[in-house]
Design brief:
single chain; alpha/beta; Rossmann fold; 2 domains; 3-stranded parallel sheet; 4 helices; about 15% strand; oxidoreductase activity; transferase; Polyketide_Synthase; NAD(P)-bd_dom_sf; transferase activity
C-alpha cells in the first residue's frame, strides 16, 4: 500500500496463508483481482472478511491440480497459452539454487537464512 500511495495493486497472485492471506487481500485496489494458488485456507475453511468485496474485487481459487479433470480441448488451450507466455517472456522461470547431494548442511543453512523462495 505504501508503494502504491494507498491505491493498492490490481492483481495478487497469492500462496500465503492465514494472516498473510488477509494482508494480501487488503493490498488490492478497487476492482482488483485475487488469485489464490494456495490451498491451506480453502481446505481449512478459514474465513475472509466479506467487507473487502465492497471494493469490487474478485477472488479466484486457482486449482491447477484439478486440471486433469478438464477436457482435452481445455488442456491443449492452456498448454498453448503457457508455451506462448514462455516464448514472449510473459512467463519467467523462478530463480533457484540447486545443491548437490553432499551439500545438505549448506542447503539447510541457505533455507534457514530466509533467502529462498518456496521449498
Amino acid at each position: 500500500m505504501q508503494r502504491t500511495g494507498g491505491r493498492g495493486v490490481d492483481i495478487v497472485l497469492n500462496s500465503l496463508a492465514e494472516e498473510k492471506l488477509q494482508a494480501s487481500v487488503r493490498c488490492l485496489a478497487n476492482g482488483g483481482r485475487f488469485l489464490e494458488i494456495g490451498k491451506f485456507d480453502m481446505i481449512s475453511n478459514n474465513s475472509l472478511d466479506m467487507s473487502i468485496f465492497s471494493k469490487g474485487i474478485s477472488f479466484h481459487g486457482v486449482l491447477l491440480d484439478k486440471l486433469h479433470l478438464s477436457s482435452l480441448e481445455r488442456k491443449i488451450t492452456l498448454s498453448k497459452k503457457i508455451e506462448e507466455g514462455l516464448e514472449n517472456g510473459a512467463i519467467k522461470p523462478l530463480c533457484r539454487k540447486v545443491f548437490k547431494r553432499n551439500e545438505i548442511e549448506a542447503a539447510f543453512r541457505y533455507m534457514a537464512s530466509g533467502k529462498h523462495i518456496g521449498k
